[in-house]
């Protein structure tokens, strides 16, 4: 159960009052428990900074909770417990939220008459008193005296409110019920001051013991509350670095005003240190948020840059379509290359088979020749030849050997020539393939793949190279280059040049129209500037007329005041000199009426001039708006 708030708790603050404040004369009469009349507290608006004029903050603080009074300051906001000049109580014992009256007596729901419950209350009171440094024995609570009860009561009340003003010279009976009313004891109406004479009696002790037990519960609740991290404590030292509770803002504001108040009493008018400390605290509070904000701004800038890049770049679908077209053309080229290599592979396989067959045939011929050579050797050995025949046969053999060597040499040279020609043919074929690839890419980029636009519907400009064929006329597959392809390409180039000339002439025409529109826009802008200059001149004239009218009005007012003074003087003179001055008075009255008529006329003329100028300005604005609308419609129609 938490104690109720003290709406004037800070009135007991130890902050010194300024010397300029009028002090009340000393009086021996005890102050009223309801406290002096206080003016309404000023609550600063949430989130507002410190006031630029702190001299107006000498009235009481608005921290109304009696448990929160200066919890973080031991030297300020507290009244010393052992002060020789004690202040009177300002507890609002008879305030608006008072204890129930006699007609609304509340019945205590606790079983205070039961012995078990009384034993429990005595044990809790004994434990709390020992925990708070009050030495007492359990027998004292069994046989209580009035002095012991008063000491325990005052100790428990001081634990709840250390600044409660107990008077040693005052009878305890006069302080008992006011203190309970100040602490909002709900059953104070059941208390009887006569019980305090003998608190240990059977009829009084249960209720008085219940009072002590209630004070113990309130003290425990206060201690638990003060040791908690509740924001309503307004303890600056326990505040987190980042906070959003309004109480934390109020705690910082109270800290600032307290320090500024102390500096003010030391003669300072500018509270630089307090301002700097408050700024540093709020900067520390907002540090993480500011860092997050900077990171979010950087991410936003990156995302905006990516968005701008995506918006300025082409559509992804177009890029994908273009890439798809390239892939399709590459696929077709790859299939052509595969077919070409397949044909070359087939040709090489046939060549290898032919060479193997020829090798086998020559191997067979070689074996036949060897067998014939052996037969011839056997025949030669079997014959009886003369030396001349042997010499002639040797010379024939040598001649045939030389002829054979010459033929072999010619065959090797022929093979080398054939190999070089094949290498040259391969290089030329690769160059021709690269030229055909470049030609095909140009056709793809120019959009000249079949079908061609009219009048070239039946023409196919694509060419294919077939290096696997042995027929020279079938190396290049496609239309005839000289008769079909070159004339078609020349016709297409001529057609493109004609279209380019037409587009160039159209561009020149559009540029001419655009230059004319720009010139017309500049002329319109010149007219607008001239009209603006006229408007400025008209405004200056209107200001001059208004100033002149004001000056004339001031002169007329001065003249009217002078005439009134003269009229008053004339009246005074007429009263003193008699009826002879009536004619002069009438003349002055006539002049006064003329001046009033002149003032009214000048006011009417000024109002008419202002209305005329306003009408002209409105007409000018409408005219400029209509001109601009016509210009915009004209530009949109031209675009």
Describe this entry's structure for a reader.
The N terminus is likely disordered. The protein has a two-stranded antiparallel ribbon with strand order 1-2. By secondary structure, it is mostly helical. The protein contains 12 helices and 2 strands; from the N terminus they run ααααααααααββαα. The chain is flat, with a radius of gyration of 60 Å. Helix content is 64%, strand content 1%.
Protein topology:
Elements: H1 115-131, H2 138-142, H3 146-160, H4 172-182, H5 205-227, H6 246-265, H7 272-285, H8 287-312, H9 316-382, H10 387-446, E1 463-465, E2 476-478, H11 481-577, H12 582-638
Total of helices? 12
Mean pLDDT: 77
User: Strand-and-helix sequence, N→C?
Assistant: HHHHHHHHHHEEHH
Helix content: 55-70%
How many strands?
2
Largest beta-sheet characterization: 2 strands, antiparallel
Tell me the distance between the termini.
81 Å
Content of β-strand: under 5%
Strand order of the largest sheet: 1-2
Radius of gyration: 60 Å
Global morphology = flat
Task: Report the structural category.
Answer: mainly alpha
pLDDT < 50 stretches = 1-103
């Amino acid at each position: 159960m938490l104690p109720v708030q003290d709406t004037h708790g800070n009135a007991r603050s130890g902050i010194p009052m300024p010397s300029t404040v009028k002090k009340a004369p000393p009086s021996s009469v005890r102050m009223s428990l309801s406290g002096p009349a206080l003016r309404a507290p000023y609550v600063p608006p949430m989130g507002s900074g410190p006031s630029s004029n702190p001299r107006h903050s000498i009235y009481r603080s608005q921290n109304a909770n009696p448990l929160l009074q200066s919890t973080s300051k031991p030297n300020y906001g507290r009244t010393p417990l052992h002060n020789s000049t004690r202040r009177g109580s300002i507890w609002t014992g008879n305030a608006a939220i008072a204890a129930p009256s006699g007609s609304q007596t509340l019945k205590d729901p606790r079983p205070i008459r039961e012995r078990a419950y009384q034993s429990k209350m005595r044990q809790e009171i004994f434990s709390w008193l020992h925990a708070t440094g009050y030495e007492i024995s359990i027998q004292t609570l069994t046989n209580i005296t009035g002095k012991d009860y008063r000491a325990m009561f005052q100790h428990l009340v001081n634990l709840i409110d250390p600044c409660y003003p107990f008077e040693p010279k005052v009878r305890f009976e006069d302080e008992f019920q006011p203190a309970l009313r100040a602490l909002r004891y709900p059953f104070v109406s059941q208390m009887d001051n006569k019980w305090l004479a003998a608190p240990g009696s059977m009829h009084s002790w249960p209720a008085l013991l219940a009072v002590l037990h209630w004070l113990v519960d309130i003290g425990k609740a206060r201690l638990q509350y003060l040791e908690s991290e509740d924001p309503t404590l307004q303890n600056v030292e326990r505040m987190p670095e980042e906070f959003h509770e309004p109480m934390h803002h109020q705690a910082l504001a109270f800290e600032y005003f307290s320090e500024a108040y102390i500096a003010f009493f030391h003669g300072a008018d500018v509270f630089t240190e307090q301002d700097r400390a408050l700024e540093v605290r709020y900067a520390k509070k907002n540090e993480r948020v500011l860092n997050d904000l900077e990171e979010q701004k950087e991410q936003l800038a990156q995302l905006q840059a990516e968005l701008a890049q995506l918006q300025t770049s082409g559509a992804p679908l177009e890029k994908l379509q273009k890439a798809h077209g390239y892939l399709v053309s590459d696929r077709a080229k790859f299939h052509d290359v595969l077919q070409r290599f397949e044909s070359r592979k087939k040709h090489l396989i046939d060549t290898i088979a032919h060479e193997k067959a020829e090798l086998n045939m020559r191997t067979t011929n070689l074996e036949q020749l060897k067998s014939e050579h052996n037969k011839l050797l056997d025949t030669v050995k079997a014959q009886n030849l003369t030396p001349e025949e042997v010499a002639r046969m040797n010379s024939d053999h040598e001649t045939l050997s030389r002829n054979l060597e010459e033929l072999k040499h010619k065959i090797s040279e022929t093979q080398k020539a054939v190999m070089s020609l094949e290498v040259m043919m391969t290089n030329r074929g690769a160059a021709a393939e690269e030229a055909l690839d470049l030609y095909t890419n140009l056709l793809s980029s120019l959009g000249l793949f079949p079908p061609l636009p009219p009048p070239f519907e039946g023409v196919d400009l694509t060419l294919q190279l077939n290096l696997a064929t042995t027929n020279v006329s079938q190396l290049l597959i496609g239309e005839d280059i000289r008769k079909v392809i070159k004339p078609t390409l020349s016709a297409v180039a001529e057609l493109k040049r004609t279209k380019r000339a037409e587009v160039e002439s159209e561009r020149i025409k559009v540029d001419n129209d655009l230059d004319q529109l720009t010139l017309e826009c500049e002329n319109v802008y010149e007219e607008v500037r001239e009209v603006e200059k006229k408007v400025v001149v008209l405004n200056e004239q209107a200001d001059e007329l208004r100033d002149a009218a004001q000056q004339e009005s001031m002169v007329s007012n001065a003249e009217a005041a002078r005439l009134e003074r003269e009229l008053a003087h004339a009246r005074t003179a007429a009263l003193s000199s008699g009826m002879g001055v009536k004619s002069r008075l009438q003349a002055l009255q006539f002049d006064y009426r003329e001046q009033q008529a002149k003032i009214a006329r000048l006011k009417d003329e000024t109002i008419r001039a202002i209305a005329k100028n306003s009408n002209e300005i409105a007409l000018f604005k409408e005219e400029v708006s209509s001109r601009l609308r016509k210009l915009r419609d004209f530009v949109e129609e031209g675009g």
